[in-house]
Write a structure and sequence with these properties.
Keywords: NAD, Nucleotide-binding, Oxidoreductase. One of its GO terms (biological process) is L-glutamate catabolic process. This is Glutamate dehydrogenase. The strands form two sheets. Strands 9-8-7-6-10-11-12 form a seven-stranded mixed beta sheet. It has a five-stranded mixed beta sheet with strand order 1-2-4-3-5, sandwiched between helices. A hairpin with a 4-residue loop joins strand 7 and strand 8. The chain is an alpha/beta fold. Helix 1 packs parallel to helix 3, helix 6 packs across helix 14 and helix 14 packs across helix 15. It is globular. Helices cover 47% and strands 16% of the residues. The protein folds into two domains: 170 residues, Rossmann fold; 152 residues, NAD(P)-binding Rossmann-like Domain (Rossmann fold).
Length: 419
């Protein structure tokens, strides 16, 4: 029995089971590796602008603290529940271990549609959530970051709230802050840049010319829009994009900068063009060299996986591909190169780590240094994954997750079980 449930948690547990079988992990070790160390559920009451009181449920799950403090984003979305947050924390653990960061995984969130809140209500809810979390977080316990529905401004409110209770400025309590409040150059772009960098690496290794390559990007938020812009700057033609409001397709290519301006002004892609609209599900199976699912979990199922016409699947989102789809993709790995989520989107947590280090030291780097170090770490993890794939003749996701799980397991074994 476990308090965690739902399709996303079941998916994370299923993936772990595959890796545990591959690594021959004894049955009595598995629950200790999979189940989170701590889960916190809080009520967050706020005064609404009309004078009424509203209460929202907030969550924070800390998967393990074996390698250091936990690290992970905070999501504001109507769909947020404890099972989803736990799954995201588990994936973050494997991700941090894969790229060699001294963190365990964490995740948090509030079950709310942020678009339903005024600016004042959003600030009140952000501050109340952090206030409720103060007993459970800290720069050496759990460091928050932005995720879906949150941004630099929300992180600044988190940091300010925590700092007011400590009586001093504690910039290192969150990452993804504005540069003016102790953030690092390159953090906002880090995840999208990492996705594009790894996609470029695979294109180069597979002799796919950048100037003739095409890409489809599902999800035009921070990760998807930056990935699209970076790919376009490399010479790749972006033939389709989508967000939660609509999908757009133009075989000759879309103007990503113009799309970003529209989304910034109007809050979404809706209204950009009626002529270019297409079916958002069918968009995933368009012929292209690179497909970037950068939205939510479980968008590529077995049916869609069988219809994919991409050559590279670069997972910008967390958990976009279901376990059933993985079975299909494993059979198609000669056709489609999968860059698994825990590697593909790891640029964000890598640069969050850099931000945390800079805040602790009060010594800040230039953006070129941040990006160089990000790519260096991603390349090293990619090489380790590729070496494992070649050595054991296994699927890319299996190799990447196995490296992460092995490192967490080794640390737990070395430290022992207290008391």
């Amino acid at each position: 029995m476990t308090v965690y449930s739902g399709p996303v948690f079941d998916m994370a547990a299923n993936q772990f089971g595959v890796i545990a079988d591959y690594l021959a992990i004894p049955a009595d070790e598995r629950d200790r590796l999979l189940l989170p160390k701590r889960a916190v559920v809080v009520s967050c009451p706020i005064h609404r602008d009309d004078g009424s009181t509203a209460v929202f449920e907030g969550y924070r799950v800390q998967h393990h603290l074996t390698l250091g403090p936990t690290k992970g984003g905070t999501r504001f979305a109507a769909s947020v529940d404890l099972g989803e947050v736990a799954a995201l924390a588990i994936w973050m653990s494997w991700k941090c271990a894969l790229v060699g960061l001294p963190y365990g995984g964490a995740k948090g969130g509030i079950g709310v549609d942020p678009s339903s809140l005024s600016a004042h209500e959003l600030e009140s809810l952000s501050r109340r959530y952090m206030q409720e979390m103060i007993p459970f977080v800290g720069p050496h316990i759990d460091v928050m970051a932005p995720d879906m529905g949150t941004n630099e401004q929300v992180m600044a409110w988190f940091m300010d709230t925590y700092s007011m209770y400590q009586g001093r400025t504690v910039t290192e309590i969150v990452t993804g802050k504005p540069v003016s409040a102790g953030g690092t150059l390159g953090r906002r772009e880090a995840t999208g840049r990492g996705v594009a960098h790894l996609a470029k690496r695979v294109m180069t290794e597979r002799s796919i010319g950048l100037n003739t390559a095409t890409a489809v990007v599902q999800g035009f938020g921070n990760v998807g829009s930056i990935a699209a812009a970076e790919l376009q700057a490399m010479g790749v033609t972006i033939v389709a994009v989508s967000d939660h409001t609509c999908a757009l397709h133009r075989p000759a290519g879309l103007d990503v900068a113009d799309l970003m301006r529209h989304a910034a002004k109007h809050g979404s892609l809706l209204g950009y063009s009626e002529e270019l609209k297409c079916d958002p599900v069918a968009m995933l199976t368009l012929p292209c060299d690179v497909l970037v699912p950068a939205a939510t979990e479980r968008v590529i199922d077995a049916n869609i996986a069988g219809k994919l016409q991409c050559r590279i699947l670069a997972e910008g989102a967390n958990g976009p591909t279901t376990p059933d789809a993985d079975l299909v993709l494993e059979k198609r790995q000669d056709e489609i190169f999968l860059i698994p989520d825990i590697l593909c989107n790891a640029g964000g947590v890598v640069v969050s780590y850099f931000e945390w280090v800079q805040d602790l030291q009060q010594l800040f780097w230039e953006e070129e240094e941040v990006t160089r170090r990000e790519y260096q770490i991603l390349n090293r993890a990619f090489d380790q994954m590729a070496s494992r794939v070649k050595r054991d003749n296994i699927f890319n996701r299996t190799a990447a997750m196995a490296i992460g799980v092995e490192r967490v397991r080794a640390a737990k074994i070395t430290r022992g079980l207290f008391p």
